[in-house]
Amino acid sequence: IKNIGVFTSGGDSPGMNAAIRAVVRTALYHDLQVTGIRRGYEGMINGDYEPMNRKSVSNIIQRGGTILKSARSTDFQTPEGRKLAFFQLKKHKIDALVAIGGDGTFTGAKLLGEEHDIPVIGLPGTIDNDLIGTDFTIGYDTAINTVVNAVDKIRDTAESHDRLFIVEVMGRDSGLIALRTGVASGAESVLLPETDLGLDALMYRLEHGRKDKSSRIVIVAEGEREGGAFEIGDIVKAKFPNIDTRVSILGHIQRGGRPTCMDRVLASRLGYAAVEALKEGRRGEMLGVIHGEIAYTPFEKAIKHSPEINKTMVKIVEVLSL
Ligand code: F6P
After folding, report:
1. CA pair distance 314, 30, nearest whole angstrom
2. Atom 16 of ligand 1 has which residue's CA nearest to it?
C-alpha cells in the first residue's frame, strides 16, 4: 500500500481527532501517504479529499469533534453509491482505508470491501460503546464523565429542593452509558433498552422503599422507550403526586468536549495499530482493545450490537441505593 485514506463517519465522538492524528503520523513514519476524506461516505462519493501531512494534525489531540467532519450518507447505502465512492478512491490513488465510526460505518465498510478490491480497517468511534470486539469505544469514557459531572450538578439542586430527577442520557440502542453512569452517580434506578423491567422496579421502589430520601436520581437511556424521560416523568407524577419530579435531557453535550486521557490513549493505540494492520495485509476488521491487548474482529461480528448488559451492575445500582 502507498496511500491510506482516513475518514470519520456517523455520530462523532471525543477522541476521533486523536485517532486521526495517530493514523496520519504512523503512516508518515512508514513513508506512506495519507489522504483525509471529509464528511464520511458523503465526501468519499463527492471527492472531498485532502492530502494530510504532519502539520495537518498538529494541536488536535485534545480537541473534541472531528477535523475531518462527519455525516450519515444514504447514497452510500446503495451499490451505485459505493461504486461511485470506489471510483473516486481510485482517482485519488487511495489503496487502503481507515474508517472511524460505529455500526453504520462498519456496515458500509464491510460492503465496500466485499464489492470492490480495497482493504478497510475500522476503529470504534462512538460514545455508545455498543460494539463487539472492544472493551471500550473511543469517546465512551469522555461521554460517561460528562454525564457524571452533569448529574452531580443536578444532584445539588435536587437535594436543595427534595426532588426526584429523571435524567435522560444517550443510547439509541444501548443502555451502556446509562448503566455505568447510574452506578457512578448513585442513581435510584436505571432504565435500559435491553430490559423492560426498569419502570416496574422504579415504581416498586417509590412505593415501598425508604421515604426519608431528600434527592433521587433516575437515569434513563434515550432508547428505552419512544416517549423517553418525559413519558416516565408523567407516569411517576401521576402515580406519586407528592414526589416533586423533574425531567432533564442531557442531549448532545454528551458528544462533545475534550477527550479524557483514557480516550486519547485508546485512540492513539488504535490509530497506530490500524496502520500496522494494513501493512500486515489485514482487511475487513475492526480493531479494539480487550483486556489491554489489541483485538481484531471481522466487521460482520463487530456490528452485531450491544454486548450483553451486566446484570450484576444493574443489581449494584439497586442495592447501593436502598
Ligand atoms: O452515535 C450515537 C448517538 O449518540 C446515539 O446514542 C444517539 O441516539 C445518536 O447518536 C444521535 O445522533 P444524531 O443527533 O447525530 O442523530
Report:
1. 46
2. 11
The string of pLDDT tens digits covering residues 26-67 is 999 999 999 999 999 999 999 999 999 999 999 999 999 999
Q: How far is the centre of ligand 1, averaged over its atoms, from the C-alpha of 144 (Å)?
A: 14
Q: Is any ligand 1 atom within 6 A of the Cβ of residue 70?
A: no
Main-chain dihedrals φ then ψ at residue 39, nearest 5 degrees: 60, 40
Q: Angle at Cα 173 formed by Cα 226 and Cα 9, nearest 5°?
A: 115
Stated length of the chain: 322
Q: Which residues of 49-65 are buried (b: 16+ CB within 10 A; e: fewer)?
A: beebeeebbeebbebbb
Which residue in the list 12, 128, 130, 141 is annotated as catalytic? Answer: 128
Is pTM beyond 0.90? Reply is yes
Q: Is 48 a catalytic residue?
A: no
Nearest atom in ligand 1 to the alpha carbon of residue 172 is: 8
| Beta-bridge partner residues of 5 | 35, 97
What ipTM, to 2 d.p.? 0.94
